[in-house]
Fold these 4 entries.
Entry 1:
Amino acid sequence: MAINTQLTALLRIRYPILLAAMDLVADARLTLAVSAAGGFGILGGGYGNADWLKRELALLVEARRSTPRPFGVGFITWSLAKQPQLLDQTLAAKPDAVWLAFGDPAPFADKIKAAGAKLICQVQTVPMAKDAVTKGADIIVAQGTEAAGHGVSCGSMTLVPAVVDAVGHKVPVVMAGGVGDGRGLAAALMLGAQGVVLGTRFYASEEAAGDPNAKARIVAASGEDTLRSVIFDVSRENLWPAPYTGRCLINDHARRWMGREMELMRCMSEERDAFVTAKQRGDFDIAPVIAGEVVGLIHDVAPAKEIVERMMAEAERLVGGAQVEAGKKAAAV
């Protein structure tokens, strides 16, 4: 059976699967691969590297000339406040959607929608979801604490249905955090979501711009091997406001400073140089691999197309089976 939702209709895609806008990891190659597979690829603009964004947008525009496919571009919203020209640069490429996370979308919403793009807003609480909808969000991404990178403490299992109850009658809600296979997609649909966002699962794809050693660590890890903390933010002198923390794989650096975060803050400058050097040389005993709890469900580095197809086959079987069982029960009453 086909899984068609409000999300697939709105974005004109075959499957209700979105690529998370992972900073630099979700480059043009991965974005195109996810869209070609029937999902919705989203370029990871992140903190706003202007040169990188210019290069990757040019690749997306060039590819669309021969094979038109929908795509989006995502930013940490605070970066647009510092570099508003990045949004103009993005909208000139005519994306189908712009994803904003971790900041107030209001200053940018009208410009995005006037350009004909859908506004996707990532939230971590019900009040944030309600606020985003009032400010023009067309799609809400409800991000649970299981997700990689920055987030807060609400788990997907309770956050998603609460957000659906609050705003799902107005805009489609998409589940992010803890989804890595068809079971996760089927569960998201049962919770009322219209689709899912995949970050860590697509990080461990052949097309992702991540270091091969980082991908190997994701495949080897279990869910208990991740940690939500402020350690990697302090280490790079990029502190986020409370209540945000970042989830990544536990490594030697995290073990060294776990429980000693205040001490780490006091020697932040000294640690920063070693941290930056480690990141440059791909030393993941110090530099973080940003990954979510779903690592425990990832067992290979596969092409994006294969990831999507496996997920959809499993989800369609599960959702179809649930509908059959519901029909049997109704007939027996």
Entry 2:
Amino acid sequence: MQAATWQLPRTLGALRRSQFSEERTVRRSVKDEVRGNLIRKLQCGEPLFPGIVGFEDTVIPQIVNAILSRHNFILLGLRGQAKTRILRSLTTLLDDVLPYIAGCETLDNPYHPISRQGRMTVEEMGDETPIAYLRPEQRYVEKLATPDVTIADMIGDIDPIKAARLGQNISDELTIHYGLLPRANRGIFAINELPDLAGKIQVGLFNIMQEGDVQIKGYPVRLPLDILLVFTANPEDYTARGKIITPLKDRIGSEIRTHYPKSVEHGMTITRQEAWLERDSAAGICIPGYLREVIEQLAFVAREDKRVDRRSGVSQRLPITVLENVVSNAEQRALALREPLAVPRVLDLYAAQPSITGKLELEYEGELKGGEAVARELIRTAVGKVFACYFDGVNFAQVTQWFELGGTLRLEEKCDSATLVRQLKSIQGLLERTAALGVGPDEPDAVRAAGAEFILEGLYAQRRISRSEEYGFYAEPRHQEVAEDARERRPERRRQFN
């Protein structure tokens, strides 16, 4: 329902004579309201959940069915699967404004108050009862479930100070300090990580969901709340930290499974949408498309790697934060070298390891190897996969031969782009191959250097050349010479210590 602020009636009498008819307000529950607005959006072809990508054929149809069925529902999924974002977007299915009795803690319907405070106000003031209005975002209440949450937090408790101030008997309903659930009346109440909620609190939830009555300090209080209850949970937490008790699970109408992006393209769309890239900087930022693919592929590779705990999952926040970190490292380099353009390189991807290791829960094998080592191998694998897509069947014999003849190339991070391009030109046929990446000879030096470095890193990922921190890129025979030289010098060191 749309209404301009200056047209909204401010008393119950004016409300009865307005577009907020008693028939519509009394009989339309929150679930009916959400259902009705969803039906209107479906008929008009409007987007249901703007910004949610990759769920169009899986999760969203199930959510639509749950809403059309007037169900309370739960989203089950690993971390970083947009569960909370989906719940918060449910406010788009609420009316623009909703009238309630002004000053009423439980946001009572003016025509049908459920609390004693609301009933007394209407009885005493009649048509002069003051009316206030709620916006959609005010009708969404979210609570993160933690083991220390109490019944008082969720439902309410007796407030002795309030009783003394009002001169009421402590058993009177007017002395209750209402918790989150009553204050979410006529709205959407979301609980994140439901299994973390203590069992006795879950009992209080399903009692108020089904029967609408609660007991506060032994006093029965009838609260027929009008609420759409939605939850999120990680399925692995059922045994790891807690569980959803059976009676509550039985009262949740629909259980909907979320998932990670099923394609790199969907993942890239999400990352582009969420990453902070529109930043104010002295250097312009140009992110190569192939590097975006590598960053997204990194998350896909990590989710399949046996050294990473699949039960924990790899959040979609990983490629988002990695992209931001990669851009920041390129920006830092451009500013230090006073270059007008910051172009991220594969080198920056390795520099972004702090945004990778913190998001990987490793299995025993991964712990033995170490988070940084696992991250470097994941980057190498991701580069190899993307490189194969761009250069499948391309002949790089001319490039690899340059290294086999003894050439080595170390690309310094603090080296300016023009110098890098001059170094890369010494490798015959390398810069010409960047055309497959959409990099032409007229592109800025920073773009050309980034493309050539990606090719070298791709050849390294396919084990056609080698790379080390000391020597940079080189051919395998050179690696053997280094190893043999090290073995020859090792006895001398022992003798020195002896």
Entry 3:
Amino acid sequence: MRVLAFACAGLVGAAPAGAKPDQKADKKAVAGKKAVIDQLAIALAGVDDEAAAKAADELGDSTDPAAHEALLDGLAWGLRAPVAVQAASALAKHPAPPDVSSLRRYATHHNPTVRGSALTALALYPDPVAHAAVVQGLHDPAGVVRASAANAAAKAHVREAIEPLFALLARGEEPAARALAAMADADLVRKLGDQLGKVPDASLALCLGLVLRRPDFGPDAERVEVVRAIGKITDQAAVNALTDYIDATPKNPPRPSRAEAEKMVEARLSGGAK
């Protein structure tokens, strides 16, 4: 009985009057999470780039608003290039409107890799300011940055990017061809067809061939128009594009676009067309 009495006394002394055990556990868990985020924020600002990049990644994985704030704070104070690249990517794991101004600033960073990373992240923000930064990135002097901007434009379907992408297509830049193909509807395909002789044949064939293989592009009558546009290109790339479409498309159910592509390839290979 005396042992039991002492045990009960210990339990009564362990918890304040009116406090529930689960409330105490919740407070402890919250304090623990805050401590972890604080430590990650310290590592993010530290001198060890590898540890800082890892901290950025872990903060990005967290759904805690405090972790997101830690990333924004780190970017606001300034991060070295390898860490800034990781922080920009981490921030975009849980996009929030305040991120755009920070990412836009890093899209003009002196390091091309950082600029590219910021533009890639901005693709996830449906914000006119973000889209304007992506369009600006298409004019960047560094090819790697223009490629990131083209990919971002395609991912976010930034319609304002179409004209600059045509300019890059005229320079034979593959990312621009891929971006235009990803964004193309029937009207844009017709505009692409009008570029024959204005842009490199290989780039135009690549772009139209990618449109042709898009499962969401159609109906098939529109694919037939794409096949015919490719057929006007004399470069070997046109045959490659049509062949890729034939190989990627099952024979059944029959598609007029596939049949037309087969006829064109057969004619080219037999010397019937040049």
Entry 4:
Amino acid sequence: MNPILKVEGLSKRFLLHERGAQIPSCEGVNLEVHPGRLTALIGPTGSGKSSVLKCVYRTYLPSAGRMIYRDGNGHPVDLALASEHTILEFRRRDIAFVTQFLHCLPRKSALDVVASPLYARGVSGAGGRDCAAELLDQLLVPERLWSLPPATFSGGEKQRVNLARGLIVRPRLLLLDEPTASLDPVTSGSVVKLIKRMKSEGVSMLAVFHHPELVTRLADNVVELASPDINGKTHSETAL
């Protein structure tokens, strides 16, 4: 089966204008993500794991390399070269990104924050909130908080709202950046169950995990990144 995403020679470097120097983040990364499987990125701090995810989501524009994504019709698209319009369409219907931080309008309720990806797809307000309530319940967010703005929540509660928003649309490709970093063991267990269920439904995943045991429990493939050396070179290795 063809991968839904194939990354070849991906590099990201940041330019320090005042010094005229380039700082390498990730360099020469190669990986594949397949339907219904999870590819995990591991490596030391500074090896560029989060940068890889942000390049795929096009928060960062890659410095080099290709990121071949197969859309719903099987057509290959290089995300590194795709137009902003194409990227926005993929984000709306195909690709979701769960980061460690929640960004949302300050007065919007948790239900509406979680349901917002469904609203963008034409789901009604009532239907979206029903789906959001079900997911918030699964992630152990107390019902008394559902009508409140997440800006008032604790760090772990915000993270659960963020997870619910990323998981609600069942994307074709899900990017996860340490999704359980702020969660207690019980809630982390609920997240693991959701991820396993989404894998069984065919969702493709590229993830960075805070805890090594989650890699063991969830990953089908592992890509290890090394920190760029003084010449900006890294190596990546995929293991089954």
